[in-house]
Amino acid sequence: MNPPDKTAISDWLRESFSFSRDEFSSPITWIDGVGVSRVRDLPDGLASLYKIGINEEELNKDSSRKFLSISVSHGKKILEGISLGSEWNVSDPVDFNCRNEFSLDIQDKSLFQKDKKISPEKLLKILEDRHMQPTKIAAGFFLRCYLWFWRVFLPNFVRCLDFLLLAILWIISGETLQKDILSRSFDGMRTESARERIQEQTEFRFKNVKTMDFFGYYKARQWSVVFYCLAHLILFVIFSYYSIHNSVVETLFENNFTALCYVVVSFAIIETLVPEFLKYSIRKTSKLYGRISFIRLSLWD
Questions:
Q1: Can you tell me the distance from the alpha carbon of 26 to that of 69, in angstroms, rounded to the nearest whole number?
Q2: pLDDT (0 to 100) of residue 179
Q3: Rounded to the nearest 5 degrees, what angle is found at the Cα of 133, between the Cα atoms of 132 and 138?
Q4: Is 94 helix (H, G, I), strand (E, B) or coil?
Q5: Is the dihedral of CA 13, 14, 18, 23 positive or negative?
Q6: 3-state SS assignment for residue 190
Q7: Phi/psi at 117 (nearest 5 deg)?
Q8: pLDDT of residue 195
Q9: Residue 150 in contact with residue 90, Cβ under 8 Å?
Q10: Is the CA virtual torsion 55, 61, 62, 65 positive or negative?
């Protein structure tokens, strides 16, 4: 099959999508690719950008049926088009991409949705209805719930969990992190070359804390010793105030050897195992937050 005429395809797309439609601009041909864009004006200085084209990989395939690369975005209207990344609300028009649903036969110049032939007007109407669905009170209810769960509830839940883990780590060991979860998530999403992996480990390093001699020979974090003693002091006050008696506890501390074994083992758990588990969990929540924040939701694919 001969290489497709990119100029001819772009001209056909521009002519096919040049029909008049309320609040839509005239189609704009892409300079750096095969496709067209149309901007729809919305109230309050907002706008939506509809982009319909064919990427280079699809153009190089032997088949005459080429999948369209479609994206619809919502943002503030500017001179060049729209500004993405503005404040988002669950009832705003939804941004989405289509890669494997709509196609164009470049030989007979026919548009398809799956295997059903459609007109350019119908294609734009389908995209418009999907984009505006969250703004519909009844028809958009379940979509708003879906978007709220993935875009609002889940990221905030992971962020709160990360904050809670950091707070517990600080209370137990005095260690903390200077970067917030968003910065750590961006650091973890970079290309993992050898140098960047080393840099990432350095940037994710927890703040060092002062140590002290525990039992005269063991170097322990100062705050871990304070927390350990304070926790047991609180337990002692509670047991004494409420006259709580436990034969196992009493037997444990009657013998010096068993009492020493308890202190060594329990302090090792508090000073080493618990902080390391918390650090591991914090690293995982940072990666999870990055994945959730930038996940591509399958709305209609």
A1: 19
A2: 78
A3: 135
A4: coil
A5: positive
A6: coil
A7: -75, 130
A8: 47
A9: no
A10: negative
Which of 160-169, 173-182, 207-216, 240-249 has the largest mean confidence? 160-169
CB 82 within 8 A of CB 40: no
Global pTM value: 0.80
Tokens 């990055």 sit on residue = 290
User: Pick the residue with more confidence: 82 or 49?
Assistant: 49
Contact 271, 220 (CB under 8 A): yes
- CA–CA dist 157, 188 (Å, integer): 19
Between CA 72 and CA 90 the distance in angstroms is: 16
Q: Determine the pLDDT at residue 215.
A: 65
Q: Which of the four pLDDT bands, split at 50, 70 and 90, describes residue 214?
A: low
**Helix, strand, coil % in the chain, rounded to nearest 5:** 50, 20, 30
Q: In 10 A of CB 237, how many CB atoms?
A: 10
Render pLDDT for 222-275 as a digit per residue (tens, 0 to 9).
Answer: 889 999 999 999 999 999 999 998 999 989 999 999 999 999 899 999 999 999
- Distance between CA atoms of residues 57 and 63, nearest Å: 12
Instruction: Report d(CA 214, CA 206) in Å as an integer.
Output: 22
Domain residue ranges of the chain, discontinuous segments joined by +: 6-134, 136-301
